[in-house]
Write a structure and sequence with these properties.
Length: 178
């Protein structure tokens, strides 16, 4: 099915996130496959946010629960994304992603060099935001964004991305992840 959406014409970030919600609703209309929906969502966020902020956002994507590890040792595995090749496996509690997953809360990191244990998939990244995907109280993955400058993300991004994460959790079937 071809999604009936148009490119965001938002002129500021708050407006962009309002548009984004509608665009993600558009691309997920009639589609509940998580790979498909996360792939299109990462493309919408990556291209849209780069255009509206003019910041060098260099990676937008998802890590999901890795079902191949024993349940006693929770870990994340790379999912759909936009950007350069990235680390494939991250244990809960490790790096910014693993910390967001273990603590079930957003990590807004203005300077990754000040975050103990930050995993540098790309040495060009200087700031990062990671939002957990929570289904029925359980973390099933994270949404991760990187930027090449410090302070690439702020509380407006946090609020907008938390809405996206919440929407996607309900909009997808998570077969294979949970
Ligand atoms: N920097 C992340 C690793 C994932 S990449 O940024 C795509 C972290 O510290 O968990």
């Amino acid at each position: 099915m071809t999604p009936n959406i148009s490119a965001s014409t938002a002129s500021n970030k708050a407006e962009f996130y309002q548009d984004l919600e509608l665009q993600i609703q558009g691309v997920t209309d009639g589609q509940r496959n998580w790979v498909t929906n996360l792939a299109n969502s990462s493309a919408l966020i990556y291209h849209g946010l780069r255009a509206v902020t003019e910041k060098p956002i260099n990676w937008v994507g998802f890590y999901l629960l890795d079902q191949s590890v024993p349940s006693t040792k929770q870990a994340l595995i790379l999912g759909p994304f936009q950007g350069k090749v990235a680390c494939t496996n991250i244990d809960f509690g490790r790096g910014v992603c693993g910390t967001a997953a273990a603590e079930a809360r957003t990590m807004l990191v203005k300077d990754v060099h000040e975050f103990p244990g930050h995993i540098a998939c790309d040495a060009a990244s200087n700031s990062e935001i990671v939002v957990p995907l929570v289904l029925d109280g359980r973390v099933i993955g994270v949404l991760d964004l990187d930027c090449e400058v410090t302070e690439g993300f702020d509380e407006v991004d946090q609020a907008g991305l938390e809405v996206v994460a919440k929407y996607l959790v309900q909009a997808c079937d998570w077969r294979g992840v949970i």
